[in-house]
Design brief:
heterotrimer; A mainly alpha (about 290); B alpha+beta (about 400); C mainly alpha (about 300); B: alpha+beta; Rossmann fold; OB fold (Dihydrolipoamide Acetyltransferase, E2P); 2 domains; elongated; C: mainly alpha; transport (chain C); transmembrane helix (chain C); cell membrane (chain C); MetI-like_sf (chain C); membrane (chain C)
Chain lengths: ~290, ~400, ~300
């Protein structure tokens, strides 16, 4: 709260190019608080990276000796990769996330356009259902969908992993809000030019919604890459495990023995999203914070 | 109430110099307007006076004393913002009371709950309420005191912002484009009301606007700013009739001044669009100059001694009482010049058919202003009667 | 003028054919989504509601309707009450913890001239990371023998603390991880709220005499953040109610049920013990809580908008 203070009035300090001393102290205090908080936030990341390059035996004696004596990273990372099909988990993650995103866009964009710009009788009803759906967490529908999948023998498949997320009411809601602010005149002009409604959707609305689609893509990919509940429910074999589930499987194999490899595994699993975040911070922050409900 | 001196103030944001050596003296009780295009630094001057922005060098004196070391609240100035800056969560009464509450209650007394323990708090607040009501009555918003800003119209919000400024009886009022968020009709009305308020309070007003009409109609004096400097400071009349810089001539007046390219002849007269203006200026022969002609210096009627320009009619703008004609000069730039005339004169000319084909337009050379290539005004050699008259009336 | 008024004066037949086309396409565009909403949302919710009145177990051949039997069972089920109590305790720690610290961080970060974006990146980092992997890391970091915290305590001559093994501290430890993950998210929301506060208001406050940090906070920042705060509190509450990952990975509800939470209880009943009927009833309770929060949010957001 420190720099909520007044701006310095010009005086000796300003002329010397210095801050007023009380403001300088406030700024220093603020940085101190922020750095302490940042250390807490970074602690697990730092410890994960340090341990991932530490000799497994050194882990037991490391205690509060943060810097590893010798670099054991190569062994730990290769152990993690060979011991457990981490790369396959990540491949599964890519397949599932990409397919879910594609399905969500295919179903949501036309519906959103219809809800925003086309007049039809069921529109209020459909929109009400969308709003209702926004409040329902995925865990509520997990049981019946699980039973349905069990009934048709489709458990433990990519299909099972994608099915409940193929429709995102949130995507419909988001795109509908976006389309709603799109000028009607352009759509009417396109109709006069002979565009069909489908062409308007594909050639006008969707390109205009690119920022919203990008933000939604970030949101969708991070939430499904990181989701544990549903994969834990429907997946039984490592063959279709997504990264979080893979992490659990890997952890259970490694319990108590090789923390170096375990941390190497955790690093590998977290790396893609963290790197993507560091590259495209703005898009990430926007995409993830679009909704409070993650 | 106090006078204000701005003494060689400079201000830089990053690498951009926003104020370059600005000096200005404002008399006690004066209504002074800073006018200029956006980005000229006029709002920054206001913020420096208020203490919201520290200057890099130079100093600000209010009532003769330096206020450079004082915080905004200690300078005892009030400011009215373009956005009004009303606290949206507070009622009108609380908004107006804010400066008084801040002055009269100690920090501990302003704390929630805890503050109520103070025995003098109730007494202070009762006094504040009385003063708020008095100000609200003056501004005729006393029936709105319980409302919140969102429930008010633009004009009402404007009054609340004024009330918040007035309630503390400040040494001076700083106004940053206070009318620009109002619709055109209300703006004209509020212009008159602000002038009246200034007359009634007798305080010093420093008013910032980009609208030259506001500057011309409300102010005792106007300072025209451009690129961080004051280009000219003077009465509205000075700026209109006697601009010292082409930028001033162009900025002030609506429709704008006509600017024609000219050349200085051997005798020191100015040749423009094929005619010679009967003036003598202090410039070498052959110098290129710009001749500023207000629309009313051109006339459809012939006058003795006025040179005449040949032109063709381009378009007509009839405002009812007066008419603006856009004319293309036969020997001149391709863009039209504007002529202002009374309706009768226009009707008469039209009736005589003298607007068809080539029109002879007479030009009052005494009122032409002549500028050099840098846009600086060039003085005339023998002092012309007209200029004497204008500068006398300016005093 | 007549030409300009064309949109309203289009021949009626053309207009009605356009509206027919619109109605038809609208339905066609909305239909696939509608079918999925029905199939993946409405029907499952109905099925859960109905199953909640049965004693169905997955694969069971015989089962029967037991009316409110499952709900009566809940009343006597210590696991249910524990999971409710633990969940509320978790929410009661995580919501104020992550909202207040995010508010402080956001205000501090917002006023910084230097390292502003560095702080933002650091605090937001946990939001993007896979919570499961980081739970494994946290488990290790807080390990009473091997973790750096234990090492630090040992170096200070203090006894190690087994946070995840301690009956009283386990929920606090999980809450800390919850706060750790949510601070950056809430910070970003608060930062958005802060940048939306017009600078003029602070200037006006400074001229009015409110230039003490406390006054600036109390008179401008806090009231202007009102709607943001309501939003942040409700979304954090909903997120906190859905705590699952850390419990599933680190404590599995232990020690002796001290970290059982609602979703974990539903998961165990439904997908480990296959007590579908009972799990459905638990799900309905969970749904009611979450929907109630959403309604509360809508109510508050409507009322708290003061301008």
């Amino acid at each position: 709260m420190s720099a909520l203070a007044t701006r310095p009035s010009p005086g000796l300090f300003a002329r010397l190019g210095l801050m007023r001393p009380d403001l300088a102290i406030r700024a220093a205090l603020a940085h101190l608080v922020l750095i302490v908080g940042a250390l807490f936030v970074l602690l697990p990341f730092v410890w994960m990276l340090l341990t991932s390059i530490r000799k497994p035996e050194a882990v037991f004696t490391a205690g509060f000796n943060p810097i590893p004596d010798e670099f054991h990273g190569v062994e730990n990372y290769s152990h993690a990769l060979s011991q457990s099909p981490l790369l396959q988990f990540m491949g599964n993650g890519v397949i599932v996330c990409a397919a879910i995103l594609a399905l969500q866009l295919i179903f949501a964009l036309p519906a959103a356009y219809a809800l925003a710009k086309l007049n039809f009788r069921a529109r209020p009803l459909v929109f009400a259902l969308v709003l209702l759906g926004l409040t329902v967490p995925q865990q509520v529908t997990a049981l019946p969908i699980y039973m349905g999948l069990a009934g048709i023998g489709m458990l433990d498949t990519y299909f099972a992993l994608m099915l409940p997320f193929s429709l995102s009411v949130f995507a419909i809601f988001l795109f509908r809000q976006f389309f709603k602010s799109f000028p009607d005149e352009i759509i009417q002009a396109a109709r006069l030019d002979g565009f069909t409604e489908f062409e308007i959707l594909i050639r006008i609305m969707v390109p205009s919604a690119r920022p919203a689609i990008a933000a939604f893509a970030v949101f969708s990919i991070t939430s499904h890459w990181n989701d544990l509940y549903w994969p834990l429910v429907v997946t039984t074999s490592p063959e279709h495990a997504t990264p979080p589930l893979g992490m659990m499987i890997f952890r259970d194999q490694e319990t108590g023995s090789n923390y170096g490899a375990l941390m190497a595994g955790a690093t590998i699993i977290t790396a893609p999203l963290v790197i993507a975040f560091l590259i495209a911070q703005r898009q990430f922050v926007r995409g993830i914070t679009m909704t409070g409900v993650k | 109430m106090a006078s204000l001196s701005i003494d060689r103030v400079t201000k830089t944001f990053g690498h951009q110099a926003v104020l370059k050596d600005v000096s200005l003296d404002v008399r006690d009780g004066e209504f002074l307007t800073l006018v200029g295009a956006s980005g000229c630094g006029k709002s920054t001057v206001l913020r420096v006076i208020a203490g919201l922005e520290p200057q890099d060098s130079g100093s600000i004196l209010i009532g003769g004393g330096s206020v450079d070391h004082l915080r905004p609240k200690q300078r005892n100035v009030a400011m009215v913002f373009q956005s009004y800056a009303l606290y949206p969560h507070m009622t009108v009464a609380d908004n107006i009371a804010m400066p008084l509450v801040m002055q009269r209650l100690r920090l501990a007394e302003r704390l929630p709950l805890l503050g109520r323990l103070s025995p003098r708090r109730g007494r202070v607040m009762a006094g504040v309420r009385g003063e708020v009501e008095a100000v609200a009555r003056q501004l005729q918003i006393d029936q709105l005191l319980a409302r919140k800003p969102a429930q008010l119209s633009g004009g009402q919000r404007q009054r609340v912002a004024l009330g918040r400024a007035m309630v503390r009886h400040p040494q001076m009022f700083l106004m940053d484009e206070p009318l620009s968020n109002l619709d055109a009709k209300l703006r004209v009305h509020m212009r008159a009301e602000l002038t009246e308020l200034h007359r009634r309070l007798g305080s010093t007003f420093i008013y910032v606007t980009h609208d030259q009409v506001e500057a011309m109609t409300m102010s005792d004096r106007v300072a025209l700013m451009d690129e961080g400097r004051i280009v000219q400071l003077g009465t509205p009349n000075d700026l209109y009739h006697d601009p010292l810089d082409l930028r001033v001539a162009r900025f002030i007046g609506s429709p704008g001044v006509n600017v024609l390219p000219g050349r200085v002849s051997a005798s020191g007269a100015v040749e423009v669009s094929g005619v010679t203006l009967p003036v003598e200026i202090e410039a070498e022969e052959g110098t290129s100059v710009a001749v500023g002609l207000r629309p009313e210096t051109l006339s459809l009627d012939a006058h003795a001694g006025h040179p005449r320009l040949a032109a063709r009619l381009h378009s007509v703008e009839n405002l009812g009482a007066e008419v603006f004609l856009r004319l293309i000069l036969e020997a001149g730039p391709s863009e039209p010049v504007i002529l202002r005339t009374a309706l009768e004169s226009y009707e008469r000319s039209r009736h005589h058919g003298s607007l068809d084909g080539v029109i002879q337009v007479s030009l009052d050379a005494r009122r032409a202003t002549i500028f050099d290539a840098e846009g600086r005004r060039i003085a005339r050699r023998p002092v012309e009667a007209a200029v004497v008259r204008l500068s006398v009336s300016a005093e | 003028m007549a030409v300009l008024a064309a949109p309203g004066a289009v021949p009626i037949r053309r207009l009605s054919s356009q509206s027919r086309v619109e109605a038809f396409t609208g339905q066609m565009f909305a239909l696939p989504a509608l079918l999925l909403i029905v199939g993946l949302l409405l029907v499952p919710i109905l099925v859960v509601a109905v199953l909640g009145f049965s004693d169905y177990q997955l694969g069971a051949i015989e089962w029967s309707w037991i009316g409110l039997g499952n709900y009566e069972r809940m009343l006597d089920d210590p696991v249910f009450w524990r999971s409710i109590g633990n969940t509320f305790l978790y929410v009661a720690v995580v919501v104020p913890g992550s909202v207040l610290s995010a508010l402080v961080v956001a205000i501090l970060v917002n006023d910084r001239k230097h390292f502003k974006s560095v702080y933002q990146i650091i605090y937001f980092l946990p939001v993007t990371t896979t919570l499961i992997a980081m739970s494994v890391v946290w488990h290790f970091v807080l390990n009473p023998q091997l973790g750096p915290i234990a090492g630090l305590l040992r170096a200070l001559g203090l006894p190690p603390v087994d946070l995840f093994g301690d009956l009283d501290l386990v929920l606090i430890a999980l809450s800390l991880i919850g706060i750790w993950q949510l601070v950056g998210f809430n910070m970003v929301l608060f930062l958005a709220g802060l940048t939306a506060i017009p600078r003029d208001l602070y200037d006006a406050a400074a001229i009015d005499g409110a230039d003490h940090p406390w006054d600036r906070f109390a008179r401008v920042t806090w009231p202007m953040l009102g709607p943001t705060t309501v939003f942040v509190v409700v979304t954090t509450t909903i997120t906190a109610f859905r705590v699952f990952d850390t419990v599933a990975v680190i404590t599995r509800g232990g020690p002796i049920g001290r970290s059982e939470v609602m979703l974990y209880a539903i998961y165990l009943e439904g997908f480990q013990y296959f007590e579908i009927g009972y799990a459905s009833a638990l799900t309905i309770v969970f749904l009611v809580v979450v929907v109630a929060l959403a309604v509360l949010q809508a109510f508050f957001l409507d009322r708290k908008v003061h301008y």
